[in-house]
Amino acid sequence: MGLKEQLRADLTTSIKSRDELTSATLRMVLTAVTTEEVAGKQARELSDDDIVKVLTREAKKRREAHEAYRQAGRDELAAREQDELGVIEQYLPQQLSDDEVAELVRAAVEETGANDPKAMGQVMKVLTPRVAGRADGGKVAAEVRRQLAAG
């Protein structure tokens, strides 16, 4: 079963079990997937990898909204965003630990021969496909900056 079919099946299950949070979140995710499918000049069916990219983007939105609500003292809205993030993360690949990210960055720096912060673009170009959907881009970029500054 593909990821989109899994999302639809889980939506049906959550509606039947009256799980408002999960059903609302999955509806929103499926809407984002459909929007992505019809974006551009020609409608297309998204692959599972494309759907993971959409899920990653939606997860990032939830993290940013959670932080904004938390800073504004809107704890109930921040909690809702955190709960939605939890639902979305169930469909994302297992996230890399900080140590795994550091090791991937070290290997990419070695591979590209980068030795100063100006070469960050080269390292990110090699690294991005390796961590896609499994690590937050900001976290990866921060680790690349840290290692290039130390090197």
Question: What is the gist of this entry?
Answer:
This protein is an all-alpha fold and 151 residues long. The chain has helices spanning 3-16, 20-38, 48-71, 75-89, 98-112, 120-131, 137-150.
Q: What is the name of the CATH architecture of the largest domain?
A: Orthogonal Bundle
How many beta-strand runs? 0
The radius of gyration over CA amounts to 18 Å
Helix segment tally: 7
The helix-and-strand class reads: mainly alpha
Strand coverage percent: under 5%
Question: How would you describe this protein?
Answer:
There is one protein chain. With 151 residues, the chain is an all-alpha fold. The chain folds into two domains: 3-89, Orthogonal Bundle (Hypothetical Protein Yqey, Chain: A, domain1), CATH 1.10.1510; 98-150, Arc Repressor Mutant, subunit A, CATH 1.10.10.410. It has seven helices and no strands. The protein has helices at residues 3-16, 20-38, 48-71, 75-89, 98-112, 120-131, 137-150. Helix 3 runs antiparallel to helix 4 (75-89). The protein is globular, with a radius of gyration of 18 Å. The protein starts with a helix and ends with a helix. The relative contact order is 0.11. The model has no long low-confidence stretch (mean pLDDT 89).
